[in-house]
Design brief:
By secondary structure, this protein is an all-beta fold. The chain contains no helices and 20 strands. It is about 0% helix and about 60% strand. Strand 8 and strand 9 form a beta hairpin.
Length: about 210
Amino acid sequence: MPSGVVSKTSLQMSYQIITKAQQQRSEWAGGSTLQLQIHPADATLAERNFAWRLSSATVNQGGAFSHFAGFGRWLGIRQGAGLTLQIDEHHLTLSQRSHLIWFSGDAKTSAELIDGPVVDINLILAPGWQGGMQALEFSADQQQLMLTSEAEEFLLYVDFGMLLLNIDERQLRLEAGEVLRCKVTELDSTKLFARASSSNASAVLAWVSQY
C-alpha cells in the first residue's frame, strides 16, 4: 500500500482514505487533471490498461476529448459556469452540479467553456465494468448514504468542506480533496452516514462493479 494511504480493516468492512499527497496531477494543453484513484494501482491512462479511473480536471479552454474506444464515461461539473458539449451529433449544456452524464468513449466529443474555467469530475470505465456517480450536498444534520445494490466498491470524493462519517459504527473524518474507497461486499450499507463538520460540504459518490 502506498505511503500516506490510511487503511482500516475489520470483519465487517475495509476502507482506504486516499490523501491529496497520493493523487497524481498531470498538465495538458487545456488545463490539468488530478487522478483521484485508478484501478489497478499500477495501471496508467496512457496504456489504457485500467479497469476504472476517477479524476477531476481543471479546464481552462475548450477542445476535443481524448478517445477511449470501448470505455464508458461519466462527467459532471463541480465549479464554474459549465460546458457546452458536442457528443457525436448531439449538443448538451452541462452547467448544474447535480447533473452528471454518461457517454461512450467511442463518441467524437468536444467541449466549449460557457463562461470561464471549470472544474469537472470524471469516471472512466473499461469494458466489462459498470458504474455511476451522484453529486451530494451535506449540512450539519446527519444523513444516510444510499448505495445501489449493483455496487461492489464505492468512492466518496469531498470537494468542499469536511465530512464526518459513521461507517459500520466507526467514525472518521474526510477532508476536502480526500477520497474514501470502500468495499461494498464487506460493508453493511445501512450503517453508512455522513454530515458536514460545520455548516455545509459537498462530495461526489461514485460506484463501480464488474459484470
